[in-house]
Specification:
Layout lengths: L7 H44 L1 E8 L5 E6 L4 H7 L23 E4 L5 H9 L10 E2 L5 H5 L6 H14 L16 H7 L3 E2 L1
Length: 194
């Protein structure tokens, strides 16, 4: 059987058409494959993130202190709601309720300082400074300077630390402040609260 002869021009047209079809088919197949590969991985990551739970310790001026399970992506406000909300004595000006929670975090809601206790501490009046503990998150430089073993430069470093890192969550964080070692921390432990 003899094949029909084609001209050189017809051969070029056939080759160009075949090449165009191959390129188009490759793009279609190539475009579909990565999308199909990405979707299952993304779905798995999203599913894993939505299943994760956080254990959060909520204490201080809340109705029900305790350890609570919350979904990943929860905020401090969610933890407060889980603990029955804050009490009337709570000082929420020191709590960032919009902050994201991390597993194992402690949320400590401080109580408001009464006017009498604050006046006695700041004025150095007849009541000794140890009557009410000094609040690390709201104390002035002068109030911190009155603590034993804390001078003006250490008091300023405490204020700088809370400005840079947010409110103190526990007294133990004082160990992270330059100039406060284990001995000074032990001396201050009963005189200060977050």
């Amino acid at each position: 059987m003899k094949l029909p002869e084609i001209s050189r021009r017809q051969a070029i047209v056939v080759c160009v058409l075949a090449l165009v079809l191959l390129v188009a088919a490759g793009k279609l197949l190539g475009a579909r494959q990565p999308v199909a590969q990405k979707r299952p991985a993304q779905v798995k990551l999203v599913a894993a993130a939505t299943r994760a739970e956080l254990l959060i310790d909520v204490s201080g001026a809340v109705h029900r202190s305790g350890v609570y399970k919350l979904p990943a992506g929860s905020r401090i406000n969610d933890a407060l709601l889980k603990a029955g909300g804050e009490t009337e004595k709570a000082d929420l000006t020191l709590v960032n309720r919009a902050a994201l929670l991390t597993d194992g975090q402690q949320v400590l809601v401080p109580e408001k300082v009464t006017a009498t206790a604050a006046a006695a501490t700041s004025s150095g009046g007849s009541a000794p400074a140890t009557t009410a503990p000094v609040r690390l998150n709201s104390a002035t430089l002068e109030q911190l300077d009155e603590l034993p073993g804390v001078g003006p430069s250490t008091a300023q470093r405490i204020i700088d630390y809370r400005t840079a890192n947010g409110p103190f969550k526990s007294v133990d964080e004082l160990d992270s402040v330059s100039g406060i070692g284990p001995a000074k921390l032990a001396e201050l432990r009963d005189l200060v609260v977050p």
